[in-house]
Design brief:
By secondary structure, this protein is of the alpha/beta class. Helices cover about 40% and strands about 25% of the residues. It has 16 helices and 17 strands. The strands form 4 sheets. Strands 9-10-8-7-6-5-4-1-11 form a 9-stranded mixed β-sheet, with helices on both faces. α1 runs parallel beside α2 and α6 packs parallel to α8. It binds iron/sulfur cluster (SF4). Iron/sulfur cluster binds next to loops.
Length: about 375
C-alpha cells in the first residue's frame, strides 16, 4: 500500500554551480502550464490511498508566487491525508517570505526543509548562491513562531579550499538556529554542471573523510542522532518521508524527473520539461523481480545507521538474509556488523559504503547462479 507522495517543482530563481537536479529558471508562463500537467499526472496515477507523508521538493518550491502556491495546494487538496501526516516543503532563503510561510501553515505543512548549504561568502560564491544570514535567522524564528517546529537545514561540505575551521563555523551557525534536522552532503562534481565545465575537482578522499568524521562528532555532541549516512535529527524528528525510501516502501513520485515505486515496478519520469508539458510523463519502467527487490532493500537499508531488520527481511522475502547473500567475509572483516535484530555498517566504516555494497551484492544468490 502506497503511503508516501513526492511532488517535484523544478523552478529555481538561480542555478547553482553544482546542481544536476531536474530544474529550470523560474518562468511564470511555464509554471502555469506545469501545474496543469502536474494536476493531470496526479489524477492519472493516484489511487486515493491515505498518505502518511507528502514531500514537495525541487528545484525550489518557494520560487512559486503566492497565487501559484495557492493553486499547487488546491491541486494537492485531492490527496487523502492521514492524521499523522508529515507534510514537508523545500524552501530557499532567497525566495521565502513570511506570507508564503503563512500559506504553507494554512495548508497543513508541518515540516520545512531549507537550503542553506554554506555561510561563507567565498563558498557561497563558488556554489553560485547568495544568502543573508540575518534573513536566515529571522525566517527560522518566524517559521517556529507560526508553529512549524520541524525544520531541516541542508549543508554542503567538501568544497574546494574549505578548511575544518570553515566547516565548524557553518555547523556553529546551523546549531545556533536550534532546529530539529540537519542534512549534510559532500560535494560531488557531477557532469554537465558549471563546476564540472570549470574543471573543478572533488577534494581528496582523506580530506572528505576527515570532514565527515568532524560533522558526525560535532552534531552528536550537540544532541543530534546520526540516523542515516547524511542525515542527523533530534529524537523523534527523523524524516519519515525519506525513511520510507530507505525502508524500500512504495511511493508515488510526480513531476518532471521524479520516480515512483508501486507494486512490482519502478517508474522514472521524463527529465524533459517539454515532454512533461505534453503529458508524456513516464520515461522508463523497470519491472522488479524478487531478487531485484532484495537488492534495493540492501542498497537503501544499509544507508540507515540502524541497518536492516533481519526478521522483517525474512518475512518480506521468504528467506533469510544469509540465504540470499554470502556476507560472511564482510562480517569477518568487520565491514558489516550485526546484533540480534539488525545488520548494519559500523559507523567507522560508513565512508566505505559503496565498496561494501558492491561486495554485498556481488555475494547475492542470484549473482552466483
Ligand atoms: S541546487 Fe536547488 S536551488 Fe540550486 S539550482 Fe539546484 S535545485 Fe535549484
Amino acid at each position: 500500500m502506497v503511503k508516501s507522495f513526492y511532488i517535484h517543482i523544478p523552478f529555481c530563481n538561480n542555478i547553482c554551480s553544482y546542481c544536476d537536479f531536474a530544474k529550470v529558471y523560474y518562468n511564470k508562463n511555464l509554471v502555469d502550464k506545469y501545474l496543469t500537467a502536474l494536476e493531470k499526472e496526479i489524477e492519472k496515477v493516484y489511487q486515493n490511498e491515505v498518505l502518511d507523508t507528502i514531500y514537495i521538493g525541487g528545484g525550489t518550491p518557494s520560487s512559486l508566487s503566492l497565487n501559484e502556491t495557492k493553486r499547487l495546494f488546491k491541486i494537492l487538496k485531492k490527496l487523502k491525508k492521514s492524521k499523522r501526516l508529515e507534510y514537508t516543503i523545500e524552501a530557499n532563503f532567497d525566495s521565502i517570505t513570511s506570507e508564503k510561510l503563512d500559506l504553507y501553515k494554512e495548508n497543513g505543512i508541518n515540516r520545512i526543509s531549507f537550503g542553506l548549504e554554506s555561510t561563507s561568502p567565498k563558498h557561497l560564491k563558488f556554489l553560485n548562491r547568495s544568502i543573508d544570514l540575518t534573513k536566515v535567522r529571522n525566517i527560522i524564528n518566524y517559521t517556529k513562531s507560526i508553529g512549524i517546529n520541524n525544520i531541516n537545514v541542508d549543508l554542503i561540505y567538501a568544497l574546494e579550499n574549505e578548511s575544518i575551521k570553515d566547516l565548524s563555523k557553518d555547523l556553529d551557525f546551523i546549531l545556533s538556529l536550534d532546529i530539529t534536522h540537519i542534512s549534510t552532503y559532500s560535494l560531488i562534481i557531477e557532469e554537465h554542471t558549471k563546476l564540472y565545465l570549470d574543471n573543478v575537482k572533488n577534494i581528496s578522499e582523506d580530506k572528505d573523510f576527515e570532514m565527515y568524521e568532524f560533522i558526525k562528532d560535532k552534531l552528536k555532541k550537540n544532541g543530534f542522532n546520526h540516523y542515516e549516512i547524511s542525515n542527523f535529527s533530534k529524537d523523534g524528528y527523523e524524516s519519515r518521508h525519506n525513511l520510507s525510501y530507505w525502508n524500500n516502501l512504495e511511493y508515488y513520485g510526480t513531476g518532471v524527473g521524479a520516480s515512483s515505486y508501486i507494486k512490482d515496478k519502478r517508474y522514472t519520469n521524463t527529465k524533459s520539461l517539454t515532454k512533461y508539458l505534453e503529458k508524456s510523463f513516464i520515461k522508463e519502467e523497470e519491472i522488479l523481480t524478487l531478487d531485484d527487490k532484495c537488492i534495493y532493500e540492501i542498497i537503501l537499508g544499509l544507508r540507515k545507521i540502524k541497518g536492516i531488520d533481519k526478521n522483517e527481511f525474512s518475512k518480506k522475502y521468504n528467506s533469510t538474509i544469509y540465504e540470499k547473500f554470502d556476507i560472511m567475509d564482510l562480517l569477518d572483516k568487520k565491514l558489516l556488523c550485526e546484533d540480534e535484530r539488525y545488520l548494519f555498517i559500523p559507523e567507522d566504516k560508513l565512508y566505505l559504503e559503496n565498496e561494501i555494497l558492491l561486495s554485498f551484492i556481488g555475494g547475492s544468490s542470484s549473482g552466483k547462479e
